[in-house]
Amino acid sequence: MRRERFGAIETGGTKTVCLIGSSPDDITARTRITTGEPKETLAQVISFFQEAVEEAGPLDAIGIASFGPVELRRSHQRYGFVTTSPKPGWQDVDVVGPVRDALGVPVGFDTDVNGAALGEGRWGAAAGLDSYVYMTVGTGVGAGAVIDGSVVHGLGHPEMGHLVVGRRPGDAFPGACPYHGDCLEGLAGGAAVAARWGRPAEQLDGDELDRALELEAAYLAAGLRNIVYTIAPQRIVVGGSVAALPGLFPLLRSKLSEELAGYPTLPEHASDDFVAPAALGPLAGPAGALVLAIQAHEGRPSQERPKS
Ligand code: ZN
User: Fold this and answer.
1) Cα–Cα separations (whole angstroms), residue 206 to 189, 210, 211
2) Centre of ligand 1 from the C-alpha of residue 160, in Å
3) At what angle do helices 112-123 and 284-297 cross, to 10 degrees?
4) Separation of CA 244 and ligand 1 centre (Å)
């Protein structure tokens, strides 16, 4: 029997990663394309896969994990579109349609964050769990929730980066979210850290790094408390460049424990792996797109079949 082969596309604000394979350990081709004007970018994506098909045979399905906001309601006429993105030229752009029509295979589609959540669930730090949350703390903050094995969607996708968190006493920083000021992302995202300290998180050191970590852990813990009480996840996986700051996780766990204040009394909340670092690193997004492709191949709901 022929081995199954899937295509994965992770579109990001600056680059688009495409790969072919069946798991992160079985990647047979990959490329990285600068995310430019939509038509040109999608044409480059499509020709990468067309050439791969010519060389090595057909694909079973393709998954796309896209920057957003995106339209995920399958009944909506703009399903598969990037909708109101601030990225120049990318308002109201059909991403799924051109890929599906050019390559003629089922296409799975979701946000980059939800994709990464699925990737961590299949091959990474949430493997084996059916209800968990994946949060990324990079320039912004985003999180995807998986409940009973399915990514949570409603009218749109959850925007847990914009949760309300209590301000730390003495913190006068106004917040960096263009919509809400001092929401979770506005206080704890990479853009907020850079605005607060005058340089990016990765460049902080000494006493400044200690103070930054303290605040970062406090605000993230407040955000995680909201998530624990709303979703009751089995685990929260945290990734992204700011989450990679040395020493953040032990502080984050202890501040979350303070936030929960013993309620409810679940021993799992006190375990070190309740808040776990992401395991797939930069591969989480493309790996998530692979999961979306596999789900599309299996006929799971997050997919769109070619028009016949
Ligand atoms: Zn906000």
Assistant:
1) 20, 7, 9
2) 9
3) 80
4) 22
Instruction: Walk me through the domains of the chain, giving residue ranges and CATH numbers.
Output: 6-114+283-298 (3.30.420.40), 127-278 (3.30.420.40)
- Residues 19-29: pLDDT tens digits? 999 999 999 99
Compute the distance between CA of residue 113 and CA of residue 180 in angstroms, rounded to an integer. Answer: 21
CA of 237 to the centre of ligand 1 (A): 21
Amino acid at 179: Y
| pTM tops 0.90 | yes
- Looking at the DSSP bridge assignments, the partners of residue 143 are 135
Distance from the CA of 207 to the center of ligand 1, in angstroms?
28
Distance from chain centroid for Cα 265: 30
To the nearest 10°, the Cα dihedral for 205, 210, 211, 215? 120
Quote the ligand 1 centre to 219 CA distance (angstroms). 13
Segment 70-104, tens digit of pLDDT = 999 999 999 999 999 888 999 999 999 999 999 99
Between CA 54 and CA 62 the distance in angstroms is 16
Residue 132: name the closest of 151, 116, 146, 118 by CA. Answer: 146
Q: Is 237 exposed, middle or buried (0-12, 13-18, 19+ CB in 10 A)?
A: buried
pLDDT band at 282; cut points 50, 70, 90: confident
DSSP 152: -
Question: What does the alpha-carbon distance between residue 227 and residue 259 come to, in Å, rounded to a whole number?
Answer: 12
Q: What is the 3-state secondary structure (H, E, C) of 100-138?
A: HHHHCCCEEEEEHHHHHHHHHHHHCCCCCCCCEEEEEEC
